[in-house]
Design goal:
This protein is of the alpha+beta class. It has 9 helices and 18 strands. The strands form 3 sheets. Strands 5, 6, 7, 8, 9, 10, 11, 12, 13, 14, 15, 16, 17 and 18 form a 14-stranded antiparallel sheet that branches.
Length: 481
């Protein structure tokens, strides 16, 4: 039997559509699973068969009962930005109380017993045990705390049946929520991470990054980061997003210390469709006293980071930017021990001397739990150059955040390990990292990024910033302050 010419063309077109990822949207019938057998963002709602992972029952609400008496009594009247602005004005730089402060450690994994738990450990964490005899992981009860605003859930439901991914980088017909809550490919999973919801307007963050030597000595790089969200904004639609050039975020990162680096300012315009529009970036260098284009703020360059070579541009937030250099493979789901519900590490007044240790941060401040994660493998394409030949990411199913990343050198040897110490900011609510670490197993050095517990740092705050603030013309003014 031979296929008709028309049928052959139709079949070829269908195959091309699938290959490009344009068939990413799911049927309304499949989307019906969201909020039922799946959580509103696409995780498996049920717990594990052995009960160690409980079912998701809604995550942390804005005011969990266990901490309600310790929070200001501010009524939420439907305007999240107004609510959060008032909250931060009244609460100051105090971190959210730990709703799980009474949980007891179930057991501790050490360099002596880690082999017993190897099936639930990423290779990167196994390597940490092998390299550093004092590395340990305190395992706590699993708390599925992840939660987002109802508007994010509603938008995610709409995205499920309309969002498409052309090639590796062309996200279209999505807004506000996670674009691919029922993913069919590794790139879709990665875009769920990159377009994860955080805030519906603009925020300002004062943070410090510690560059730690093998001996444990360190120096701090202070940054002020301002972000204006477009994709996340409530009421945003795919059509409205087109009017804003399909923009995900505007970002300005300004180095404020030490003196030798102060005044360096980076501006980034990050779109959601990198097939049609590349990332735009500019840098102001106080030594040159001029603003210049920075097309190299991407991939394995270190143009936009001040990490002494420990962190490449695409490692910020564990992974960001174009997927074009790698072949991506979805390896499915696994149950893994990952950093989760880390409130202690961001407690105000905790000095950085208490957090920083030789080879790794103070593990007494870190909480690990058993969670289901999506496992994604990226292998460098032939003809492309990158310092990493392979990367493997472990994404929390409840929030799509990358919790752990294993990075391999050109010889295929495990080289660096990333960890995001996740937690739910239940006052919003949203899930993010209280801290991120990047460990170099070869040199013994690492960076701890996003430190906020010691003054003058503090929690992210809502703010209002005009579009004109995020322009190359404004960089020079910021750098001269």
């Amino acid at each position: 039997m031979t296929m008709s010419r028309r049928a052959a063309i139709t079949a070829a077109a269908a195959l091309a559509l699938v290959a490009s990822g344009a068939a990413a949207r799911v049927s309304p019938q499949k989307a019906e699973k969201l909020g039922k057998t799946l959580t509103p963002v696409g995780a498996t709602r049920a717990g594990s068969k052995d009960g160690r992972i409980p079912p998701w029952t809604g995550g942390l609400s804005r005011y969990p009962a266990s901490v309600k008496s310790r929070l200001p009594d501010i009524k939420y009247k439907g305007n999240l930005v107004a609510f959060l602005t008032r909250y931060y004005n009244e609460w100051g730089d105090k971190a959210l109380p730990n709703p799980y402060g009474n949980d007891k450690v179930k057991f501790t994994i050490t360099s002596k017993n880690y082999r017993k738990y190897a099936d639930h450990l990423p290779p990167g964490l196994i390597a940490m045990f092998r390299h550093y005899k004092d590395f340990r992981m305190k395992i706590y009860p699993t708390r599925r705390s992840a939660a987002y605003p109802k508007k994010v859930y509603a938008a995610t439901r709409k995205n499920a049946t309309r969002a498409t991914l052309h090639g590796l980088n062309g996200v279209e017909n999505a807004a506000v929520g996670f674009p691919f809550p029922i993913p069919q490919s590794a790139p879709q999973v990665m875009w769920n991470h990159m377009l994860g919801w955080h805030f519906p307007n603009s925020v300002i963050v004062h943070e410090a990054n510690a560059i730690v030597s093998q001996s444990g000595s360190y120096y701090l790089v202070g940054n002020t980061v301002r972000v204006k969200f477009w994709y996340d904004r409530f009421g945003m639609t795919p059509k409205k997003l087109e009017q804003h050039k399909n923009m995900n975020v505007y970002l300005i990162s300004q180095v404020v210390s030490p003196a030798r680096l102060a005044g360096n300012v980076l501006l980034v315009w990050e779109p959601i469709n990198l097939e049609k529009q590349h990332r735009s970036a500019w840098i102001y260098n106080p030594g040159q006293r001029r603003v210049r284009r920075a097309p190299n703020v991407r991939f394995d360059n270190t143009t936009g980071t001040h990490s002494d070579g420990l962190v490449t541009d695409d490692m910020v937030n564990m992974w960001n930017g174009s997927l074009q250099q790698y072949n991506w493979k979805l390896l499915g789901k696994k149950e893994m021990y990952i950093p989760y519900n880390n409130y202690a590490i961001a407690r105000p007044g905790t000095s950085y001397d208490k957090v920083i240790r030789a080879h790794h941060i103070n593990q007494d401040l870190v909480r690990y739990e058993l969670h289901r994660v999506w496992v994604v493998q990226a292998t460098l394409k032939k003809g492309y150059r990158d310092i990493y030949s392979k990367r493997v990411f472990y994404l929390d199913e409840d929030s799509w955040n990358i919790a752990v990343g294993d990075l391999y050198d050109k010889r295929g040897k495990l080289w660096r390990v990333e960890q995001a110490y996740l937690g739910t900011a239940y006052i919003v609510p949203e899930v993010g990292a209280a801290l991120t670490t990047y460990n170099d197993l070869t040199s013994g050095r690492y960076e701890a990024a996003g430190l906020t517990s010691q003054k003058p740092q503090g929690v992210p705050r809502p703010t209002h910033l005009a579009d004109s603030y995020f322009t190359p013309a404004n960089l020079r003014r910021l750098g001269r302050r």
